[in-house]
Design brief:
Strand order of the largest sheet: 3-2-1-4-5-6-7-8
Radius of gyration: 21 Å
Distance between the termini: 48 Å
Helix content: 40-55%
Structural class: alpha/beta
Strand content: 15-25%
Shape: globular
Order of helices and strands: EHEHEHEHEHEHEHHEHHHHHH
Largest sheet: 8 strands, mixed
Length: 299
C-alpha cells in the first residue's frame, strides 16, 4: 500500500489526506513546495523532484497523476525515462479520452501500464470519498481495487472498460452536469422574476426535500443562498467552462447523437462572458459549491 502521488492542487491534496487516513504510504510531489510541506505534516513523504519520487518507491511502482489535462504529457515525458517495465501510472485528472488512448499506447510500447480514472465529487469528494470511474486493463483494476475503494465513497467506484473508458464516462458525466446546472439556473431565474416575491432559499429547501428534482446540485444551491443571499451577491453572472462539455458535444457529433440540451448549456456559458445574468449567477454558484472554483464577480 505504497503510492507515488503527483499533483497537490485542491483535488490532489485532499485525496492524499484521505489515502493517509486509509493507511497508505504516500510519496507526494508537486511543482510548488508549500503543498508538499503541507502533506508532509499529515504524514506523507515529500519528494521535491520526480527522480526523488521514483527513488522512494519500490518497483513495480504505482503512481497517481492529478494534474491539469494540459500538463499530463509534459509530466509523462519527464516521468517515463525514470520508470521501469511493470510500473503502473494512473491518470486521475480530467483528460480527454482521445489523449488517454494515445498515452496508453505510448506507455504500453515502453512496458509501462496505464489506467485512467475519472473522479467526480470535487475537493470535498476527494477528501471524504469520491465517485471513481476506472478504465484500463481489467486485471489491473482488480489488482488495485483497494485503491479505488479507498479513495471513493462506499460503493462509488467501478470498472468502466478498456483504456479511455474511465475518462470517456467522466466526460459525458460533465456534459450531463452542464445540462442539469443550466436547467436549475434557468428555473430559478423564472422563480426570481415572478410576481410572487418568492424566498428562493425556501424554494431550494423544499425542492431538495423528497421532490423529483431533489439532488446534490439543488442542495448546493440551497447552501449558496445561505451564504450569499437571494441575489447571490458577489457571484459572477458569467460562467466559465472546463472543456469537458465541449468534448462531449464534439464526441456526440462524431457519433451522430443530437445533444441539444448539453450544446445549449455550453453555448450559454460562452455567451455569458459578454451577457452575464442571474441564470449565470446560479450556475457559477453551483460551480463554486462543488468544485471550489473562483466565481467572484470581477470588479
Amino acid at each position: 500500500m505504497k503510492i507515488g502521488y503527483i499533483g497537490l492542487g485542491k483535488m490532489g491534496k485532499n485525496m492524499v489526506f484521505r489515502l493517509l487516513e486509509k493507511g497508505w504510504d504516500v510519496v507526494a510531489y508537486n511543482r510548488s513546495e508549500p503543498a508538499i510541506k503541507e502533506v508532509q505534516q499529515k504524514g506523507a513523504q515529500g519528494a521535491y523532484s520526480l527522480s526523488e519520487l521514483i527513488k522512494k518507491l519500490d518497483a513495480p511502482r504505482l503512481i497517481w497523476l492529478m494534474v491539469p489535462h494540459q500538463a499530463v504529457d509534459d509530466v509523462l515525458d519527464s516521468l517515463i525515462p525514470l520508470l521501469c517495465q511493470g510500473d503502473v501510472v494512473i491518470d486521475g485528472g480530467n483528460s480527454n479520452f482521445n489523449e488517454t488512448l494515445k498515452r496508453a499506447e505510448k506507455l504500453k510500447e515502453k512496458g509501462i501500464k496505464f489506467m485512467d480514472a475519472g473522479v467526480s465529487g470535487g475537493p470535498s469528494g476527494a477528501r471524504n470519498g469520491a465517485c471513481t470511474m476506472v478504465g484500463g486493463p481489467k486485471e489491473l483494476f482488480e489488482k488495485y481495487e483497494k485503491l479505488f475503494c479507498d479513495i471513493s465513497a462506499p460503493g462509488a467506484y467501478g470498472y468502466m472498460g478498456r483504456s479511455g473508458a474511465g475518462h470517456f464516462v467522466k466526460m459525458v458525466h460533465n456534459g450531463i452536469e452542464y445540462g442539469m446546472m443550466q436547467a436549475i439556473g434557468e428555473g430559478f431565474e423564472v422563480l426570481k422574476k415572478s410576481e410572487f416575491d418568492l424566498n428562493l432559499l425556501e424554494v431550494a429547501k423544499i425542492y431538495n426535500n423528497r421532490s423529483v428534482i431533489e439532488s446534490r446540485l439543488t442542495g448546493w444551491l440551497k447552501k449558496a443562498y445561505e451564504e450569499y443571499g437571494q441575489e447571490l451577491s458577489g457571484i459572477s453572472g458569467s460562467v466559465s467552462a472546463s472543456g469537458e462539455g465541449l468534448w462531449t458535444v464534439q464526441t456526440a457529433k462524431k457519433l451522430g447523437v443530437p445533444v441539444p440540451v448539453i450544446e445549449r448549456a455550453l453555448k450559454f456559458r460562452e455567451e455569458s462572458q459578454k451577457n452575464p445574468s442571474y441564470t449565470g449567477k446560479v450556475v457559477s454558484a453551483l460551480r463554486n459549491q462543488f468544485g471550489g472554483h473562483d466565481v467572484s464577480e470581477k470588479k
